[in-house]
Amino acid sequence: MKLKQLLFSILLFNFSACSDAETTPPQEEEGGQDTPTASVTKTVTIDAGQTFQTIKGFAASDCWAPAFVGKYWTNNRNEIAELLFSSEIADGQPKGIGLSMWRVNMGGGSMEQGDDSGISNVSRRAESYLNDDLTLDWTRCEGQRYFMEQAKELGCDQFVLFSNTPPVQHTKNGKGFSSEGNKSNLKEDCYDDFANYMADVAAHYQSEGYNITHISPINEPQFSWNDGGQEGSPWTNDEAARLIRELDKALTEHSLSTDILPGEAAEWTYLYTIKDDENRSKVLEAFYEPSSSAYIGDLSHVKKLIGGHSYWTDGTWDGMRNTRQRMAQAAAQYGLEVWQTEWSMLGDNYSSTEFGSYDTATTMDIALYMSRVIHNDLTVAGVTSWSYWTSMDISQWGQKDRFLLISLVPNGWTGDGGDTGLLRNGGSYEAMPTLWVLGNYSRFIRPGYRRIAMELSESMNFFGSAWISPEADEIVAVYTNYSDKGVRLNETREGWNGDVASITTYTTTQDKNLKEKNYATDEKVILDAESVTTVVYTLK
Question: What is the per-residue pLDDT across 160-180, written as a single tens digit (0 to 9) for each?
Answer without folding.
Answer: 999 999 999 999 999 999 998
